[in-house]
Records
---
Amino acid sequence: MYEDEQAERLPFPTSTGFSTRAVIAGAIIVAATAFAIGLTVEAARHKGGNSTGYGTGAPADVDLSPLWKAWRVIDEKFVPAAVASTSLATSTEDANQKRVWGLIEGLAGSLNDPYTFFLPPKENQQFTDDMSGSFGGVGMEIAVRDQVLTVVSPLKGTPAERAGIRSGDKILQIDGEDTDGMDISTAVSKIRGEKGTQVTLLMLREGWSEPREIKATRDVINVPTLTTTERDDGIFIIHLMTFTANSPELFRSALREFVESGDSMLILDLRGNPGGYLEAAVDMASWFLPTGKIVVTEDYAGHANNIVHRSRGYDVFNDNLRMVILVDRGSASASEILAGALRYWDVAKLVGVNTFGKGSVQELVDITPETALKITVARWLAPDGEQIPLEGIAPDVEVKVSDEEIKDGKDPQLDKAVEMLLKAQ
């Protein structure tokens, strides 16, 4: 299972090594979990069989006669307005199969859920390829927010970041093509491409009076998972970019480095982190929480028993620890789970702006050997039992960053976190 959207960054492994259920708390796997432009997958593929109980037949209480009537009308009456030479070779069998894929796409679309969609053979193969290696893109995660294609987060050190793309930017056009009604898989396929080629995006940002074109040159996307910084003022910084299968081990090493530094003040930077493996977030939270404390709950709304994820109780820090977590609109899914749990249990304060608001769980189910359905199956509940809000988690201290400050290399959010920690000594 996953939990995130389709994006455009490097792929996660196909197994977690943690749980046979492999839940993803990712961000936003940008709608299909393809890091659209170099996508990332936040959970392992669920090899599901037929879980509907319907077998190969239709539900008993659904009248499908209108569907078959429409099918017959198409067979009997449809004449293409224009026939391209390439379409003459299309067989009836191929055409009928495309209709079936279209029916499933429409069925998924009727749920009006931006994280539920069908992956036909080509898109499904692309998804699989994304999980197994690097690819060309611009390095950002995208999702549908309020029916508009939206940047969840540009990945650090990628063409998207260098081009000035920011979390929350609305993508109105891709190479001149309107994105209105465009699904994530289609958007990802249009943004990705050969290394060295350019994609032109028409973007709208809060505070802009009109859309602007941003050009980014595609490259092979390889994103670091974690970096550490030891400051002279006694503050240690861990910047976590993604929640991959090996993130818990890297995080443990970073915490060991923090302890050995002798510092007692910690900043965890989750800005621009769209999420990843749920198990990674639970493991990381366990370093700060006693055994049994709730980190997050998967709420299946009665379709299955809820699953409560609790701290494993590593709990190695004492009351001397002072901790601040940096968040922004690019912090999603697993980032929101970790940040929300540590704030709820009074381990850390949050500084920045509202997070993305990815409060649902997705699962990838094989429909045929060549196709799959990515479907929302549960909601994330914070330790207080409330769903992660759609508007995102509000920080304890709000600090916005302007375009000018970014251009000048300033970081008022980090400055505020440092100020809070030094005052708390």
---
Amino acid sequence: MGVRSGVRGALTAGERDLLDRLVRELTPRLVAYVRRAYGSAPDAEDIVAETFCRAAGNIAALRTSTRRDLYLLTTVRNLCRDGFRRRRPTPTPDERLEQFSHGGGDAPDRAADEERRRALRAAVAELPESLREIVVLRLASGLKFEEIAELLHIPLGTALSRMHAAIQRLREMLGPGHGS
């Protein structure tokens, strides 16, 4: 399915091709970010669709961006933060399992692993937004710290120190026996 023309006028064929390619390449990553960063997000696809509509409406900025993935991730992040301020959803069990489930091991080991994953996801959800965001962008979205700093418009040292603070808080919240 192609991207429809923006509010400001019809897109050129090249602009439509650019948006179509970005939709194909980045939608899974953007949807995963929404789900992991903001918990249960049944409307993640709607948020991502709105992101691409806004990109189409400001196609010149997208076209000239050197990091189109970060441009779109910033738009998704802003849309999520607006919604997040109104409500703070809790992850569903299926979403908790989505990233972390894997086979192998016997039933007691899998149950213990699942309990640790559940505790970790709950603890991450309790972190202040500035720390939670760093954890999700690094671990769930796979961004490098330099990319995180660029996306959040913060110095690299701030991104690193927030990750360190998040890890310290998670250790305190989870207590001994939940990894190092």
---
Amino acid sequence: MGSTLGLDRRQAAEELQQRLALGPRRKNRLRRALLASTWTVTVAVLGSAKRIIDFCLALLLLAITLPAWTPMLFAASKAGSRLVRTVRVGRWAQTFQEYSFPIAGAGRILRVLHLRRLPALINILRGDISFIGPRAVTPGEMSPRDRITYRRYDVRPGLICLWWVRQRANIAYEHEALSDAEYVSGQTLLGDLGLALRAIPAVMYGHGVANAPDEFPLVGIRIHNMTMAEAVETMVAWNGQPEQHQVAFLNADCANIAWRDPQYAAILNRADLTLGDGIGIKVAAKALGLQLKQNVNGTDLFPRLCDALQGLAGGLFLLGSRPGIAEAVAGWVAKHYPAVKIAGFRDGYFAPAEEKSVIHEIRASGATVLLVALGAPHQDRWIDRNLAATGVRVAMGVGGLFDFYSGRMPRAPQWLREIGLEWVYRLYQEPGRMWRRYLIGNVTFLYHVALQRFRNQAGGRNTNKGIAI
């Protein structure tokens, strides 16, 4: 017995001595040092590769665009101005002067094509900025001391940034610094190339959030022109008020249905909120000389609404889609936003004779927010007809939202959303059901928009008031 204990103690002492021995400790330190130096070298190599590509490409573009410099410099000197030098904040929060042509020296076409910034090629040659990177901000605009912004200064600013692309696609819902941090953490040469390619269609979409009216008529339907944050804030405020409110979305398909169905158009027009949804509405607004602040679609709005409802009185009721889908969405909410009360859920497969019992179930649940996924126009008609009886404060038609959050169908990748082609992914997923909606419906919608624009111009108007197509 005693010899066994002595053996165990000796083995333990030997193991402890081996662990504390200088050799293994040195090996561990060397291994950690090698890992750290490997990471540093990798980052340096990637940064150097990007710098070389930036330099060579800037030199090539400078040679190609040199003929455009002469007339612009001549026009600038004639107007009594020179190259504009704007103080910007670059890598490691160091300031530099960014060059650009003066507005007086830039013709309209050059301004549209953003060629006023041609002299910024000099900054790229000097290493002040890159082609791809966070936006070059002015001093004091984004302090490197702020936790949310400091990561953007780890890399050179760029002429094209992730935030700019998302603004153009009207999906820049978060703070700019969050997009910058996302870019910095996942930066690769291939990712930069993808971002550059996504910037090409983004140019055609026009500006992002702009000074625009709070509402305007589009293809005969009144749109409440809001950002995502404003829409969520409005619905949360309604959640605590006694009045009842209907929220609807207008996309290209809904606009086509409303054109054929005046009653449905009337429902959309008297809804308390009708929000512009999809790149089609963005393009239509731009064609008619209007600015849509953001693409406020239900799929992106849902998690933000859940986050804002956490801890508030009332509850959420989910109605619609196939059996089991609404329940799965309720499970998703419980997992990601546990402080949101799920008042109830039910699928959308019920007969007309069961409608009263469904309404009674919603009212008895005490829910204050109701999401109805019955498809357009049925969901909006259902809300318009039964809102008062349900007792909820906010009722919103959400289309196919439940399919995404239940896990039944994956959503389009972020890069497809950034170039406004989420509808292509939906067509790929369900070609048999979606081909008519997208391939024929999109063309029909654009035809009506073009017709409306022609009528506006023929009538000498700059707005589309009173036009129903």
---
Amino acid sequence: MPDIVAGYTWSDSEKGVTASKMNSVISGAVIQTDFIANKPAGSALNPTDQLLELTSGGTYARITGAQLSASVAGQLALANTSQSGMLHQTSGNIGDYCGGDNLFHVLNTFTSLSAATTLTSVDTNKLLICSGGSWTLTLPAAANGLAHRLRNDMGITGTTGTITVTPPTGTIDGAATLKLLPQQECQILCDGTNWRSFGLKREVILGVQDTVSSTASQTILLPVGYRYFELHFGGMVPVASNDYLVVQLSANGGSTWLATGYYYINVYNSSATVAAASNVENGTNIIMTDPMYNGASGAGELKMTIYPGAAAQYASFVAVSGVRPQAPPPNKIYNMYGVQTGAGPMNALKYNMAAGNILSSYLTVKGVV
């Protein structure tokens, strides 16, 4: 039973017991010792203070914090934009966080996407790894603070393509869409109406290709959308001495190769003091180096810049190489090329030695937007 007088306040020096005063005392009331023994030491709130709960038996029990949260958890509404309340139950994952929508979101989860996808606010801050060719990634409805991290994981081999990032309303970087080319990555943020990208590089390494044993030829893709490509061949050595590197291009991803229609000009040192020039048209391939020596000190170096062309434009190239022939001194060759027939864009390249195999080569491919 309760232990408090319910309806009457006693005063100091008050005398006499009246019926009305007695009737104000709840029948069977007792004074619980907890009210005296465990009373707070001061008037300020103290985390060690104890709460007491009236039980059905008329006594009081101490209330722990866990009992209190469990008691009210099912009675209080979750907080939202129109009312106060409790936060959503946590997921328990160290990388998750509670957002302004009172839901938990994954902060550092990798999500792989390979086909047309529409994002939602739940995808905010996820790292989205895109592959599978060209397709459209639709952003969620604009809301202040939304953020997505994107990467086009395609490169110079396998399947390649462009990811077209499209907001349902508003713009992204002031445009209707954002083209994410192979190996490009960025973070995009929303101000509540429009989107902006951050960290989108205009110059990226598209990939590397190492040849470490005798190989007849190698191919790479030149992803469409890049302004030009830079290729660096290091440690180029033929199987047979006095062999040289040649290149062919393709406009259909390597299904077929342009075997005719090139013209090129090369200027090279034929000896230590004499320079010679050679012009060739309608060649079956592009000669990239002078004949190279097969030896430990005979590796060739080559840098090549390729403009891939466009629907009504032919591809063009500039290359410079330094090679050691079988008889020193080393030769340097400068090459300038263009495609005579077959407009671009060229989207694949094949390289091989003119007569034998490639013994070693270390290729790095860079794309510039």
